[in-house]
Amino acid sequence: MVRKYLPASPRMWKVLLTTNLLLLGTAAQKAAAQVELAPWGNLTGIRTDGQLLEVETSLRLVKTDGHVTETGKERQRPKYTREGTRQLVTTQLDSLDFVETVQDAGPGKARVQVQLTARNSMPNSSGVYFSVQPPVAAYPASSTVEVRDANGTVLTKGTLGSLKLPSSPASSIRLTAPTRQLTITFGEPMPVELKQEQDKEGLHYRFYLPLLTGSVQRGQTAQKTFTVQATGSIDRAPVKLTLNPAQPGRPFAGFGGNFRLQNPKTDPQVIDYSLQNMRVAWSRVEMPWQLWQPAQDQDPTTAARQGKLHPHVRESMEMAQKLSKQGIPIILSAWSAPAWAVVGTPARGSGPGPDGKWGNPLNTNNLQASYKSIADYIQYLKDQYAVDVALFSFNESDLGINIRQTGQEHAQLIKELGAYFVSRGLKTKLMLGDNSDATSYEFMTPALQDASTHPYIGAVSFHSWRGWETETLQKWSAAAKQLQLPLIVGEGSIDAQAWGYPAIFLEPTYALEEISLYMRLLAVCQPLTILQWQLTADYSPMAGGGIFGDNTPLRPTQRFWNLKQLAATPKNVVALPITADRPNVSAAALGNIQEGKYAVHLVNNGATRRVTLTGVPETVKELQVYTTDKARSMQKGKAVVVKKGSAQFTLEAGTYTTLSTK
Question: Is residue 433 part of a domain?
Answer without folding.
Answer: yes
